[in-house]
């Protein structure tokens, strides 16, 4: 059974109305799903790969058939524009079509196709939007190829730097500059993406939740109240290596014990600063990593996030202080390096209220959810109003072939997006 058949099996046909067509959305999700399809059932479409480009070209064909005028920039971002009754800045919506290795079929494509379905609905009903409308595909959101995410949106916002392009290499050692040349652009054109960008009044992104809140609340669509900004802290504890059998317990300077105490303490800190803060140690390297050797050194990385910058930074400081305290108590060394620190994006409350109003029209109770994952919206929103809708994810699974959102929920997301965008169009 292909993706279309799975999606359509339990679809409520009454949701196809007002020009929004669930079968069309399911068919397009299916067509995208076979680009980069793996035997596991997942999909691999790295940023700036032939597969990502093929997916964009397919969506471009649909954009043109829907009457959109299509352009692209030096970062490979795609813009499908529909003229409105008035000229000026557009209301824009979209997401990405690249994926993580062996990823799912909804993360990214659902946002792009939902935005396109709004334009299709207007075409079917003869509706002319009050303002210009744009469907956007950002390049390389996941960052799986170069371990540097949100590339397209950062280029669009003028936030890419030449030194970053010089340093990036994929797992085959190919430079980002070379990859851009093969893709049909260049590093120079990529860096210019923000110079002549389309003028956007408000950007709205539809995305699967990648969590279980909506499932727990039994609601198909929710309101994103903020996008967490990550801080990545690398901590190195250094002790004294020794033989596991010949070194007495008394007086040992074991950095792995220190690291264990440090990791165990971390789970208590987030709730002290914010109910939306999180901190995670998911990577730890022990040197020399012998079963009968007291470690010499332990290197670990702490991922620290919150939707509020002040509390995120407060949490970061607490974790740093605790690392120093543990090292001093155990007479070992500690070094810390901040590898990344990205500003969180609280979503404007008036935009949240507008989405909640649209939800109410479809008898959906508004659920307000913080996004722990990064999205293109958090980059675009640094300089312009931006909002997000989450659509329910089964079991909260994402970045995995088992990623699933029902067609009913997908179509509810389109209806809410359509109503919200039409409301934005009417505002002066």
From TrEMBL:
Binds 2 Zn(2+) ions per subunit. Keywords: Hydrolase, Metal-binding, Zinc. GO terms for molecular function: hydrolase activity, acting on carbon-nitrogen (but not peptide) bonds, in linear amidines; metal ion binding. The keyword Zinc applies. Residues 229-328 form the Peptidase M20 dimerisation domain. The keyword Hydrolase applies. Zn(2+) 1 binds at residues 96, 107, 207. Its cofactor is Zn(2+). It comes from the Bacteria. InterPro entries: Amidase_Cbmase, Bact_exopeptidase_dim_dom, Peptidase_M20, Peptidase_M20_dimer. PANTHER family: ALLANTOATE AMIDOHYDROLASE, ALLANTOATE DEIMINASE-RELATED. Belongs to the peptidase M20 family. This is Allantoate deiminase.
